[in-house]
Amino acid sequence: MKEMTATVNAVELINQNVYQIRLQADDLNFEAGQYLMVVLPTGEQVPYSIGSAPLTLPEVTLYILVSDAESLAHKVVEYLQSNKIINIKAPGGDCHLKNGVMASNPEHILLVAGGTGFAQIKSLYSELVEQNFSGKVSFYWGLRTAEDVFAQSWLEEAHKYTPFTLDVVVNEQSDQWHGRTGWLYEAVLADHPDLSHSVAYISGSVGMVYGTLDQLEAKGLSADRCFSDVFAYAPRPEKPLL
Length: 242
Fold this sequence. Notes:
The structure is a single chain. By secondary structure, this protein is α/β, with parallel strands linked by helices. It has helices at 72-82, 118-130, 152-159, 184-191, 206-217, 230-233; strands at residues 2-13, 18-24, 35-39, 45-49, 59-65, 85-92, 108-114, 136-143, 165-170, 180-181, 198-203, 226-227. The protein has a six-stranded antiparallel β-sheet with strand order 4-3-6-1-2-5. A six-stranded parallel β-sheet has the order 10-9-8-7-11-12, with helices on both faces. Strand 8 (136-143), helix 3 (152-159) and strand 9 form a beta-alpha-beta unit. The longest helix has 13 residues, at 118-130. The radius of gyration is 18 Å and the shape is globular. The protein starts with a strand and ends in a 9-residue tail after the last helix.
């Protein structure tokens, strides 16, 4: 990863606890699906998926969830709010479209995101649109409540692109939500009961990624055709041989 500076163009709270950050990084090149590190004055390096596609360079977008005032994410947002020029490292990660998967001419690319895992999957989706990918692309985004949904204007534009599908799935039912509800993997499998000819990118928490992978493998998805940054920083122990 290369060290560089970036200009903070905007820090905007876009729902109750998610900030959208717009940075200008003139020296940055990356592949859709990669991440950057925000380098704090303390030396801490905090990774965030780039939520925009390379076509928007030199501007990039991040989505940062701040769960509480004591969190590292809160420290990052305060740093971004109080500094116009920041230090970053980039790019990182091999969960992207040039990792060899496209050479296999996949007929179906499944994109699955939980929470702010949306950032990475949004970047991949936008790049596939830009490339005029001719296969099927199915994007599923899972959130706990209707209040957790963000990036509404982007979702509205993405829904207009009819060659691909995009579904937002909210776990908890409410009067404010009229879309799909339930568990994210249930929505995926209801639409795609046979995943033996699919490749998948999954982004979210460690538990969400491995829990989803287990469900998708049971319906034919091959583990070596599934990609996630989680596999690099939180590898799961090998399953015991029976």
